[in-house]
Design a protein that fits this description.
Blueprint lengths: L1 E6 L7 H9 L4 E5 L13 E6 L13 H15 L4 E4 L1 H9 L3 E4 L5 E9 L1 H5 L9 E8 L1 E5 L4 E7 L6 E4 L3 E4 L7 H8 L4 H5 L3 H30 L16
Parallel strand pairs: 1-2, 1-3, 3-4, 4-11
Antiparallel strand pairs: 5-8, 6-7, 6-9, 9-10, 10-11
Helix pairs in contact: 1-7, 2-3, 5-7
Length: about 250
């Protein structure tokens, strides 16, 4: 059994998430859909799914066969109890897959180090144990989840984005921000000079914020992905159904 990682773009690698899952004993199946690689036909050999960010759009009114295929796979995984974690675009795909909606963020992109606040539900969620109720997280998006799927609960928000994290059931999580970005990807994004970077104050301001917030962002991300590896996607799920009790 393997943990499936869906990489949607060259600039959105799984980073710290991949490093942590490997450290906790996960076998990894990587699918780079941005290079045209195909998703698996079924979930027979898949134990968990991590769906990463990218530059495509998961807006409800946009038709994209690559996004549609991921929606179908994540919906099936949710129905079958396969743990799913969506990050940024991946969170939007998950929300859309389960019946929510995605649209453009009012006022343009949210980029840079955004203050994210856990709500009462998020503060009690096991994946966020040991993480402060208010943290700076790295955001890089122009679309948002405009309506959560039926039965979903929001876990955190920011000033501009109402849903920064959510949970559907007990095994499907979405995060609008990028905890997976380690030092390299964070610096690469902060040095960018495109319109997204300009909406975040420009590369000089972003690099200054990186120096200020980067260490804590990475520290909290490492803690988060350790919780993911321990509680959401434990590697020993492959042994489910096997008796572990020692009998005398």
């Amino acid at each position: 059994m393997a943990t499936l990682i869906i990489q949607n773009g060259e600039t959105s690698p799984p980073g710290l998430a991949l490093e942590t899952l490997r450290r906790f004993g996960h076998s990894i199946q990587m699918v780079k859909v941005w290079q045209g690689e195909a998703l698996p036909d079924d979930l027979t050999d898949i134990d968990a799914i991590l769906c990463c960010g990218g530059e495509r759009s998961a807006r409800t009114d946009v038709s994209d066969p690559v996004i549609d295929a991921q929606c179908a796979l994540l919906a099936r995984a949710h129905d079958e109890g396969v743990p799913v974690l969506g990050l940024c675009l991946g969170a939007q795909i998950l929300a859309r897959a389960l019946g929510g909606s995605v649209g453009a963020l009012d006022g343009g992109p949210e980029c840079g180090f955004t203050e994210v606040s856990l709500n009462a539900v998020g503060r009690e969620d096991p994946l966020f144990k040991g993480i402060p109720w208010k943290t700076h997280q790295f955001s890089w998006h122009e679309d948002v989840i405009t309506a959560l799927p039926a039965g979903a609960v929001a876990l955190s928000s920011s000033r501009r984005t109402e849903v920064q994290a959510f949970l559907v059931g007990t095994t499907s999580y979405g995060l609008q921000y990028h905890p997976e970005y380690g030092t390299g990807p964070l610096e690469e994004h902060c040095r960018r000079t495109d319109s997204f970077a300009e909406s975040g104050g420009g590369s000089q301001a972003l690099m200054a914020d990186l120096a200020l917030h980067g260490p804590s962002v990475i520290r909290h991300a490492e803690r988060f992905f350790e919780s993911v590896a321990l509680f959401l996607m434990p590697a020993d799920r492959i042994h489910r159904g096997v008796r572990h009790e020692i009998e005398h």
